[in-house]
UniProtKB/TrEMBL annotation, chain A:
PROSITE patterns, A to Z: ZINC_FINGER_C2H2_1
Signal peptide, first to last residue: none
Keyword presence, Ribonucleoprotein: no
Residue intervals passing through the bilayer: 329-353
Keywords: Membrane, Transmembrane, Transmembrane helix
Domain of life: Eukaryota
Keyword Lyase: no
Limits of the C2H2-type domain: 82-105, 109-130, 146-169
PANTHER family in alphabetical order: ZINC FINGER PROTEIN 511
Name of the protein in its database record: C2H2-type domain-containing protein
From TrEMBL, chain B:
Entry-linked InterPro entries: ARM-like, ARM-type_fold, Importin-a_IBB
Signal peptide: none
Keyword Transmembrane helix: no
Alphabetical list of Gene3D superfamilies matching this protein: Leucine-rich Repeat Variant
Lineage top rank: taxon: Eukaryota
Ribosomal protein as UniProt keyword: no
Domain IBB: 1-52
Any coiled-coil regions, as ranges: none
Keywords for this protein: Transport
Identification of the protein by name: IBB domain-containing protein
Length: 372, 458
């Protein structure tokens, strides 16, 4: 098939339409016994016109045809591990790691460690499960938003929303929707997709202990923000140690720094603190927060070493947990005056440092993966 | 972008004949399946290499208790490795149809599997996905249907997981596109799946993935172009796709493909050209296109140039796609004086005529396009004759196929009507004798007679 040479240059040229020649039709055109009429034609999917093209497509799928493209040679790097606490996947390409991170760690609720497939579902989850105002507001107005992005419907109750999802968006009736919130209960599986793997026993109800199974697979959960009514004790899961984080080293430093020279017996204070920690086995150490505290505190904190308390040795000392640059750190609420004092100091120190951060947003995973 | 196809090893000698034979058999089987409306191809990605590495244990048929045991381990095992291994064993067992049957009839099994698929553990997710993959590949419809509960999750992932659509991970994207294309082919798709797809952000993502440019990947584009085709030919709401700029995106993609075809050999572009042409052709039939000068029209005559470059490519590499290309040309020219003029001004009539001998279907389509041009009036016919058209037409009148002859007669009528001098030329070229051959043919008689009259009375 010989094409005029000017065709190729026309293709390379700019867009444009031809100025049409004048149209002048005679009624006799296409009149009986003739029948031609110019018209556009459409074919439905199963039309036989598509047979050849479909066969071609399926030959390709069935691998009879040679591959369309081979995966381009991806740059390999020395093996490295995912730095998110508790995840031990190994990668040898940045592309794989980025995908892994996006899929599993990007949209993770920092309160309950549940992972969501999208930012949207995560936001809905945080709003409904971890925002204390939500319950109050939902008594006055429709607050339960439809989970499907783009649908603007809101509902009075979780059940109404579920009915809507089943009825209008054709979700199956046993789709994993929110489970009813137990007051002060554990963070049961939140919005839609992220289901905990206990389906055979799932008859619509949720046992709190099971729900935590998936959550606690991940390591050190972030501590509750100061001032939250919810206490940490609800997280007890049989057989798994409560991991509650406090940066004792930081506290030590902060104590020293905040109190300054007004406390001549700093050493005494430190001993007292150590005693407190021994008495309260629920406090653990994490180097993670030490490293977080480093940039905040300046050279003095460069030591960064955890104090040599006997407690920490028995724990899951996660020395690799240095990926996150998240600046937030909070003290655990524990039931002791000492801790109240510590909390007070923490607040004080925050003021001193002039950092008034929006804790919720900050905790809610804006952490970026560290590029190696 | 249009990386050259690095195909599998090209064998030499008699092995080629064997492959051709195999391919012919496969093709025949596919045609048969399609006629019976049973054309479903699945990509089975069994990672044989890794299985061999694991000591090559033979897959055994699993019974109910064993399946339950594995599921429980996968769900509640304390060690991650243990859970993974349980799923691996399950997957191996699922390679057997008997195990598949047992599995789907076991209460709660699918729910557990879907739960694992949506869990937090990447490796568990992967293994659960592999199990589902084995199941979905089953020839037994009951088994494949049992996988339906996973579709809501898949859709949620697809529509909510927009980060994956901008993922740099091409294999993932291609897999997503393939999965979506399969979903869109089910019988219930037009009522149930396509409306929700159209209501989500998916159409924008799909169109974005089809935009030409350095980031376009052929494998990914092929899958999503097919998705678009299934959506469009189901005629649910094509106006929406037009309003999202579907026509202009696909038009630009066509231009890009024509450019690529000129530059590189053997890129597998026909795999992309086919769905793109179908989408364009079907979109052109939408009522929205009747609004002249509307915002989302396709008016760039470079599209015609690109199409002809692709037609030439098809002629060499894949003649079975010529009808689809010509269908697009028909839809472009039918109601558009501008495109008809482009055909004339770019000297494309002769190349078009060169396609006449290819096949009956192609001949009919070529003649139809020529009729589209001719019916616009004298200004157009004057550019058709004098020229090579008439002698070609006399040639097609001699074709054994009635429909080809019928279409030739239609074109002749228009030519005689708007360009009377052509009739004289026709007589001089012994056209009447050719006409006479069809005097007795029932479907052609009236028209033959009318033309004989017209020619003789000039």
């Amino acid at each position: 098939m010989q094409l005029p040479p000017a065709l190729h240059s026309r293709l390379a040229g700019g867009p444009g339409a031809a100025e049409p020649l004048p149209v002048e039709r005679d009624p006799a055109a296409g009149a009986p016994p003739f029948r031609f009429a110019a018209r556009r034609v459409r074919f439905p999917r199963e039309h036989e016109f598509f047979e050849d093209g479909d066969v071609l497509r399926h030959l390709y799928l069935q691998d009879v045809l040679t591959q369309v493209t081979e995966a381009p040679e991806r740059p390999r790097v020395p093996e490295f591990t995912c730095q998110v606490a508790g995840c031990c996947q190994v990668f040898d390409s940045l592309e794989d790691y980025e995908h892994h991170y996006h899929t599993l760690h990007r949209n993770v609720c920092s309160f309950c460690r549940r992972a969501f497939p999208s930012v949207h579902l995560l936001d809905v989850h945080i709003l409904e499960w971890h925002d204390s105002l939500f319950q109050i507001l939902s008594e006055r107005q429709d607050m339960y938003q439809c989970l499907v992005e783009g649908c603007a419907e809101k509902f009075k109750t979780s059940k109404d929303r579920k009915d809507h999802l089943v009825r209008c968006h054709l979700y199956p009736a046993d789709f994993r929707f929110d489970k009813p919130k137990k007051s002060r209960g554990p963070a049961t599986p939140g919005a839609a997709v992220r289901a905990s793997a206990e389906a055979p026993r799932d008859d619509g109800e949720q046992s709190g202990g099971d729900a935590m199974e998936v959550c606690s697979e991940h390591a050190a959960s972030l501590p509750e923000p100061v001032g939250e009514r919810r206490t940490s004790s609800h997280r007890s899961v049989p057989g798994i140690l409560l991991r509650q984080v406090v940066s004792v080293c930081f506290v030590r430093r902060m104590l020293g720094w905040a109190l300054g020279s007004s406390l001549p017996e700093r050493r005494e204070l430190e001993c007292w603190l150590q005693q407190e920690l021994r008495a309260r086995p629920v406090l653990f150490l994490s180097s993670h927060f030490v490293s977080c505290a480093r940039p905040v505190l300046g050279p003095e904190a460069q030591e960064g070493k955890a104090p040599s308390l006997p407690l920490h040795r028995g724990l899951n000392w996660d020395g690799r947990n240095v990926g996150c640059r998240c600046r937030s750190y909070d003290l655990l609420i524990c039931f002791s005056i000492a801790n109240c004092v510590l909390i007070g100091l923490n607040l004080f120190s925050s003021l001193i440092l002039g950092r008034t951060q929006d804790r919720r947003k900050e905790i809610a995973n804006k952490c970026k993966p560290i590029r190696r | 972008m249009w990386s050259g196809r690095q195909g599998r090893l090209r064998p030499v000698g008699c092995v080629v004949e064997e492959l051709r034979c195999r391919r012919r058999e496969r093709e025949a089987a596919l045609r048969k399946a399609r006629r019976e409306q049973q054309l479903i191809s699945k990509r089975l990605l069994r990672d044989d290499a890794s299985e061999e590495a694991e000591g090559g244990c033979v897959a055994m048929i699993l019974g109910e208790t064993e399946i339950q045991h594995f599921l429980r381990l996968a769900q509640q095992g304390t060690e991650e490795k243990e859970r993974e291994r349980a799923l691996v064993s399950l997957r191996r067992g699922l390679q057997h149809p008997e195990t598949q049957q047992t599995f789907i009839w076991l209460e709660g099994s699918m729910r557990t599997l879907v739960g694992l698929l949506t869990s937090n553990q990447a490796l568990l997710q992967l293994e659960a996905a592999r199990c589902l993959h084995e199941l979905s590949h089953s020839e037994q419809s009951a088994v494949a249907e049992a996988c339906l509960p996973a579709t809501s999750y898949l859709l949620t992932y697809l529509s909510g997981h927009s980060s994956d659509f901008i993922s740099p991970h091409l294999t993932v994207l291609e897999a997503l596109g393939y999965a979506l294309s399969q979903l869109l082919q089910v019988k219930e798709a037009p009522e149930m799946i396509i409306p929700s797809v159209l209501g989500s952000t998916l159409p924008e993502h799909i169109l974005r993935l089809l935009q030409p440019g350095p980031k376009l990947n052929l494998g990914v584009a092929v899958e999503f172009a097919w998705c678009l085709h299934y959506i469009i030919c189901s005629q649910v709401d094509n106006t929406l796709l037009i309003s999202h700029g579907g026509l202009s995106t696909l038009g630009l993609l066509l231009l890009d493909m024509a450019g690529a075809v000129q530059r590189t050999e053997d890129t597998g572009l026909e795999l992309l050209a086919c769905p793109v042409l179908r989408c364009l052709s079907n979109l052109l039939t939408e009522a929205a296109m009747e609004v002249v000068g509307g915002q989302n029209q396709l008016e760039d005559e470079r599209v015609v140039a690109a199409l002809f470059i692709l037609l030439q490519f098809f002629l060499q590499k894949q003649p079975s796609l010529l009808p689809e290309g010509l269908w697009f040309l028909n839809n472009l020219t039918a109601n558009s004086p501008s495109f008809c003029t482009s055909l004339l001004s770019m000297d494309l009539i002769e190349p078009l005529l060169q396609l006449l001998p290819v096949s009956n279907v192609v001949s009919i389509l070529v003649l139809t396009v020529l009729c589209n041009v001719a019916e616009k009036g004298p200004a157009y016919c004057q550019r058709l004759w004098p020229g090579p058209l008439l002698s070609c037409l006399i040639g097609t009148l001699a074709f054994p196929d009635i429909e080809v002859v019928g279409q030739s007669l239609e074109l002749l009528q228009l030519l005689f009507l708007y360009q009377p001098e052509a009739a004289k030329d026709f007589l001089q070229q012994s056209g009447l004798q050719v006409l006479e051959r069809h005097q007795e043919e029932a479907q052609l008689q009236d028209r033959v007679h009318a033309l004989q009259q017209t020619a003789l009375h000039q």
